[in-house]
Design goal:
Layout lengths: L6 E5 L3 H12 L4 E6 L15 H4 L1 E4 L2 E6 L5 H6 L3 E5 L4 H6 L3 E4 L16 E5 L11 E3 L10 E2 L22 E3 L4 E4 L7 E2 L4 E5 L2 E4 L4 E6 L5 E2 L4 E6 L12 H16 L10
Parallel strand pairs: 1-2, 1-6, 2-5, 4-5, 6-7, 7-8
Antiparallel strand pairs: 3-4, 8-9, 10-17, 11-13, 11-16, 12-15, 13-14, 15-17
Helix pairs in contact: 1-5
Amino acid sequence: MNPFDLVVGVKGAGEQATGIACRLYQSNIRKIFMMEIEKPLAVRRNVAFCDVIYTGNKCVEGVEASKMKSIFEIESAWDSKKIAVVVDPEWHSIRELQPDVVIDATIAKTNLGTNMKEAPLVIGVGPGFVAGKTVHMVIETKRGHNLGRVILSGQAEANTGIPGSICGFDQERVLRAPCSGQFITNFKIGTLVDSGVVVGTVNGACVVTEISGVLRGLITPGTMVKRGLKIGDVDPRGVIAYCDTISDKARSISGGVLEAIMRATGTFKSRMS
């Protein structure tokens, strides 16, 4: 089967899933549909297709995605040269469309039910999957020497709970909800901030920056959040352009996914047969 004819279902439409979808689309794998929850919690919304749940349309590095009201509209998105995004937290689209490839890019750090029966090729992104048992292949997501590596047997490295370091900052660059409640802010992604700035509140409690930099990400204002949830990201490099472009990590991971698909192209049967 020509890889350009592949139908690919992606679980999740957050930052990493979007990087994957863009890489595949730019590699001429165009029949892509993404499945999201009703109220996505992505922080890097400028480069996350899940934002279409709120806005209807999204363009990331020249690749467009649109929200479809139902799985029956997905092909119309493809006809318009767009990636389709549907609210489908239980992944019913997979049973209806029977994709050639299923990619679990929810980055849940645990397996929420993905299995090898879902498609001829099932790829798990990050920890929680076992290559050869629960999925066919796993992609390493931990920063370092093996980032983006295709794993054919075994698992990705376990989640440490520590964000990747940028300019020596890891935990300090992440903004978390100080309590449970509604996140309120007037700040925009791409704003330069100093340390100690109140960028928003949750149930009246202040969300304060620990370092100076650019607000590379903020969860959708008005979202109900739980205490400790990541709701923002300050990039100490202070480069505003990074807010609107796919990260180095997402590019590495997406390259691993593309490699995994290319490795497995011989296992796909033509839909014309």
